[in-house]
Structures are given as C-alpha cells and as structure tokens.
Amino acid sequence: MMVHGPNGAGYPIRRWTVDTDLSAVTWILTIGPRMKDRTRVVSAGRLENPKSGSVNPPVHHTSTVLFPTVEAYLKARSKSFEVSIYGRLGTPTSAALETALCEIEGGFRTLVTSSGMAAITVALGAFLSSGDHLLMVDTVYDPVRSLCDRVLTRMGIRVSYYDPLVGAGIAELITRETRMVYVESPGSLTFEVQDVPAISHAAHQRGVLIAMDNTWSTPLNFNVFNHDIDISLQSLSKYVGGHSDLVMGAVTTTEPLHRDVRRMGALLGTCPGPDDCFLAQRGMRTLPARLRQHQDSGLTIASWLAGRPEVSRVLHPALSSDPGHAIWRRDFSGAGGLFGVVLKPVSDRAVHAMLDGYEHFGIGVSWGGFESLVIPTSPERYRTATAWTADGPTVRYYIGLEDVDDLIADLERGFNRLRAA
Question: Is the dihedral of CA 313, 323, 400, 275 positive or negative?
Fold first, then answer.
C-alpha cells in the first residue's frame, strides 16, 4: 500500500501494531522516505514494541480472539477485512509477514496462504465464475495446469492455453468472456521469457485482469506492479523461506481486488500456521544477499555448462545466448539459481547414472533453499498450445549456496559417469 505526500512521492507501509480496544490486528501507516530494497527487506513488518525490545515479532498461536465487550466484538466484525476475530482470518504473526511482503511487493495488500498452490487457487477462485474464460500460459507450473483441467473446467470455466511468446498477439485470443490472463515468466521447465508489458497492455485495453506467478524472480528482481500487473503470486516456500523448511504462498493485489482475495482466502481456509509465518519472515530478511549469491553462482555454472560438449543448450534467460535475453534484460533487474539444460542425445540410463552419483546436487522437486538440486524433466508432456522439441533429454538445475568450485567438480564427475554409461 502506498500513500502520497504533497510532492507526489510514494511512501510505503512501515509498521503494524495491535489495537488493544479490539484485541485484534490493525494496520498503521508511517510516513517516511522511500528505502532501497535491501533496507526495506530488513525493516519491513517489524513490530514496534518498546516493552519487550524484541527485534522479531513474536509467534502467536491463536485460534480464539477475546473481546472486552460486545461493542468491541461488533466493531471488529464490522471491520472484517481490517482486523481478525478468529485465527483463520489472521494473527499478529501473519499480519507482520503480510505487511512486510506488501511493502516489498509494492501492492495494496497481501494475503499469506498455506502453500503456493493455495495462493493460486485463491486468486483464480476469487475472480473466475462459471461462463468465464481464462487465458493460461502454456508453460505454466504443471500443478496449476491440473487445477485448470480438473477443477476449473468442471466448474464451467473455459481455459485456453496460449504460446508464452505471443506478446501483444494475446489481444487476438481475448473474447468477451475472458476474465483473466495468467503469466509465468520465465516459464516452468523451459524458461521462456514473456513480454509481460505487451500482454498486460493488450489485456487491460479489454478490461481483463492480469495475474503473474513471480516466484522465479521475487519482487526484488521483477517488480510486478511496476509492470501493470493486478495480482502477484509467490511460493514463499522457495526464495523467501530460503531454508527448505516451510510450505507457504502469498497473493498481493491492487486496491480494487484485495477484498475479494481476502474473502476467498477465508472461505477456503488457506491460513498458514504462525510458526511458518515466523520462518518466512526470518528467511525474508536475508533474501537480497542470498538471491545475489544464487544469481552469481548460477550464471557461473550455467556459462560453464554451455561450454560442455555433452550439452546442447542451456535454458537461462540471463545468458546472452538465450532467445529471451533481450526482454529479460529490459524488464528484470536480476536472476536466481534455477535454469534448465538440454543434453545432446543420450540414453535415459546414462542421464540417471549422471544424476544418481552427484554429491552436492540432491534429487528433489523444490528450489529456493540453500542446497543445490537437480531433476530430469519432460517438458513435452505438459504442452498443448505449443510443441517442445529438443535434441536430447532435459534436466533442471538449482544452484544453491555451496562453493562454485565444488559444484563444478561434482558436475564434471557426473559427465564422466554419463559418458561411461
């Protein structure tokens, strides 16, 4: 949420506190100068509590909220989107995290959820009804495709998948029933970079909402609301948590949409536990430093892989050789540690031998933590609007915080196993 001073400069939310009259969380706006990203991440959502002197907001294990009088209870109920009268609707711990995330995102209000998929389900459920049309990018995270095909279509919502490189051509796919366009850039598994400003402009000219999964970049490397997006989605399990020990998500919206999102979140019961909220906020404090290290190590290793004779191409938009590099450089301020690799033709047995013997790359589907990961991928299985063709098998790497020399040595040994097999 932003307020504006006499000179038009924007100032973000700085603090939250507890309204003792309502025994519930309220939101406090503090006017102050705009901060740099690293300062904002450290200071956002901090509890001002001179009695305890605690740097971190305390963890509130709360279901029932008591009120001193009936009048106070009724007053709280009348402000159901500003205060919490029950743990499912928010706690001081979740409010602190939401305040911090909203300030970093630059949106109007954030809702934290029990997973990234829950955040996506809330966003789609809040604005799509029977008879509506959803334009979904063909490179979307596969569980979202399953949600569309198995749930939304059964509810009477028509879903069309579109080419991630369509750009302004999205206008030709919008019908009178189109309610939302969903983007994910770079795309899952194959990392195509979408022309988000062109898509957003075309959609808004027709009164269509834009939602974006921004987990790959985080708000520090791609500011969703500066690119005219209505709904920002993140899996907090990834970079924000940063330690592979929580599952959470977040939805941040512009002002006209936040009530519908909070209402849907409450109805679906997607509230995260207070301990996870605490872990997410703790992880968030070191996000800029970790993200920069992931980027630097990731680019070093991606460049090394691009020169290997076993590799056909590396799917990383921050590499100058990538087809999406020009758009990435125009719109993004950084990258992370997640990218794909297309190997030259080789048997599955050889790929498995390469992956199974890694010392520092665990085989696991998540990413964003401190540890390096790898999985084999099959992008061709998840496309309907576009075809995926590649010379050989594809692998997805996530580069953690280990020393780059150790990781490269591990990869070198893996290629030796691949050739031997």
Answer: negative
Cα 368 from Cα 399, distance rounded (Å): 9
Quickly state the pLDDT bin for 28 (edges 50, 70, 90). Answer: very low
CA neighbours within 13 Å on the CB side: how many for 295?
19
In this prediction, residue 48 carries a pLDDT of: 56
Q: Does the N-terminal peptide bond of residue 186 adopt cis geometry, omega within 30 degrees of 0? A: yes
Please check whether residue 193 is in contact with residue 223, taking contact to mean a CB–CB distance below 8 angstroms.
Answer: no
The catalytic site residues sit at 88, 141, 213, 238
List, for residues 259-294, the tens digit of each pLDDT value.
999 999 999 999 999 999 999 999 999 999 999 999
For 164-210, what is each residue's pLDDT tens digit?
Answer: 999 999 999 999 999 999 999 999 999 999 999 999 999 999 999 99
Q: Any idea how long the chain is?
A: 421
